[in-house]
Amino acid sequence: SPAPDSPAPPRRRAGPTDIVDPALREETKKALVWVAVVGLVALAVVLAQALLVVFGGLVFGALIDGGARLLGRVLPLGRVWRVALVLLAGVAFGVWLVEFAGVQIADQASALPATIGNQAMKGLHWAQRHGLRTDAKFTQNLIEGALARVTEVTAVVGGVLGGLTTLFLIVVLGIYFAIDPAPYRRGLAWMLPRETRDDFEHTLLVMGKALRRLLMGRLIGMMVEGLLIYIALALYGVPMAALLGMIAALLAFLPNIGAPISGLLMVLVGFSGGTSMGLYCIGVFVVVMGVEGNIIVPMVAKRTADLAPALVLAMQLVMGLLFGILGLALADPLLAMLKVLLERRSDLTEAREG
């Protein structure tokens, strides 16, 4: 203890950043919290593209994880080996596709824009003969815009992929997430208050299960639709049957949007071979869409995240407008995870109130 005659320590004077008034200090803390929230939102907007790539890695990891879990039912192997087998199967399929069908599909992809352009011009000429008046410049811009979109689609199918760095990052992240997802799940939960960690981890498990089911359902629909269209078109001798089947399979991943696009391409190519072939392609499209809409989709929806079609379409439009083709492809999985999150929060709130 200090000696009785020692001088008292000098009183610290308030600095320019000190807030003496307790009420003002409390309001300042609240304001700083709101500033921090706004800053985090702004940071998320700035990093939105990078965050979307990370989410793409999560989606790809869930797809690998689903395949590894299926293998685990029949093969008593460790998780790493099962993930490796799934990746090897994917690589083998890619090699087979390039070796046996790559050249043919690439040739068909290069010829598809010209075929679509010729058919579009024929359709406009037919419409003009029947009384439709169109401006020549408007017509040319419309055709060029449509051909640009078709060229983009066929470039992807033909193997000329843009954004290889993004694709590589998604694949690498997905592999890391699939090999051992537990540390990432625990790490996210660790950043939350202790009393909410268990509920959060359980929510992540439910979200992962819903995502795996959604992706498996999408893959089943893609394979069935692509094979049916390819077989039906090849039996009638429709040109570019392999390419059209692959485009239909790829676009089937985008419900509500993919089917009309693939159907339009199929019908335009069909009419290039005559009226009867065009009508046959229309019939194939109607039958395949009927089978998918009345058999495949209801069966898959019962075991996956059953999402409202209008809500899915709205989400796709927003994500596509903001982030392009990557956002469009990830809109459905993101919506499914948000649905699970909101349902879990609602169930937890009801349980606590009850």
Characterize the structure shown.
It is built from eleven helices and no strands. The protein has 354 residues and is mostly helical. The protein is globular. The chain starts with 21 loop residues before the first helix and ends with a helix.
What's the quick description here?
The chain has helices at residues 22-46, 48-72, 79-129, 136-158, 164-179, 182-190, 197-236, 241-251, 258-271, 275-303, 309-353. By secondary structure, it is an all-alpha fold.
Key descriptive features of the protein:
11 helices, 354 residues, mainly alpha
Between the first and last Cα atoms, what is the distance in angstroms? 57 Å
The DSSP helix count reads 11
The low-confidence runs, each spanning 5 or more residues with pLDDT under 50, are: 152-162
Q: Based on DSSP secondary structure assignment, what is the total number of beta strands? A: 0
What share of residues are in beta strands?
Answer: under 5%
Taken in chain order, the helices and strands follow as HHHHHHHHHHH
What class do helices, strands and sheet pairing give? mainly alpha
Main sheet, how many strands, which sense, barrel? Answer: none
Overall radius of gyration: 28 Å
- Shape annotation: globular
What is the arithmetic mean of pLDDT? Answer: 76
Question: Level of helix content?
Answer: over 70%
